[in-house]
Amino acid sequence: MQDAQFDVHAELEERHWWFTARRRIVQRLLTPLVSPGALVLDVGCGTGANLAALVPRYRGLGIDPAPAAIRWARRRFPNVEFVEGEAPGALGPRFQEADAVLLLDVLEHVADDHGFFHRLIAAARQGAVFLITVPADPALWSPHDVAFGHYRRYTLDSLQDLWRGKTVDPWLVSHYCARLYPIIRVVRRATALLGRSVGQGGTDFRLPPRWINWALQSLFQGEGQRLETALRHRLAQQRPVSPPYRKGSSLIAVLRKSPT
């Protein structure tokens, strides 16, 4: 991501329906996984609002290699700790203290996503939880992805390839942003044909009128109940569950590092 996209995030992420709804879904899924006071590490924290929303219920630590992102995060949320650098190396032994590791729309920005994820898993303590979100459906590739510096959009299979053969237990893997998928598909196909995005900073993010923003947020965040139910069922039954959603513009996964 370039500075222009971080500026868009800083301006919109506390109000725009996509950011606010995703944040509430993440909060719902963390509740049955980690206790209050646990250390939540946000890898690729960007401009900081996702992590700040989890504090003070959890202890928060954010890390991002982009100086512009960390400047924004520290300026906006001085009560949260942010580190400039690349995980896991820049955190040293502190990485092993994390009870939960967030990778919220981060892996698509990494050229060697397999190598990066392997290093994170290797550095995490046993029992650590990983909560991952990524953009889905390569057919949705558009100028929005180019502006954000994406290397790829994932399929369910290509996301699961990241941890095949590694010491993790997948607790939840599903598409999400499913209710709005038809609308997003139309927008992305149109912008791909036009060769340009429709929002700010080369992206498709633009704050809609208040009532539309509220409606879109309600539709998206409403998926959290179904995702949380599936996760709790998996935790209770200790066996795989079917994906709550089979199509969507994004994917979400919850993993736990198992004993070697």
Note down, in words, how this protein is organized.
It is a single chain. This protein has a 7-stranded mixed beta sheet. The chain has helices at 3-12, 17-30, 49-52, 67-76, 113-123, 143-147, 156-160, 181-194, 210-221, 223-237, and strands spanning 39-43, 59-64, 81-84, 100-104, 129-135, 168-176, 250-257. The mean pLDDT is 93. Helix 1 runs parallel beside helix 4 (67-76). The chain is an alpha/beta fold. The protein has a single domain, classed as Vaccinia Virus protein VP39 (Rossmann fold, 3-Layer(aba) Sandwich), CATH 3.40.50.150. It is globular. It contains 10 helices and 7 strands. 38% of the residues lie in helices and 17% in strands.
**DSSP helix fraction:** 25-40%
Count of alpha/pi helices:
10
Number of domains: 1
Low-confidence stretches: none
Give the overall pLDDT as a whole number.
93
Bin the strand percentage: 15-25%
End-to-end CA span: 35 Å
Per the principal axes of the C-alpha atoms, what is the gross shape? globular
Which structural class matches the secondary elements? alpha/beta
Strand segment tally? 7
- In terms of quaternary structure, the protein is single chain
For the record, the CATH architecture stands as 3-Layer(aba) Sandwich
Q: What's the arrangement of strands in the largest beta sheet?
A: 3-2-1-4-5-7-6
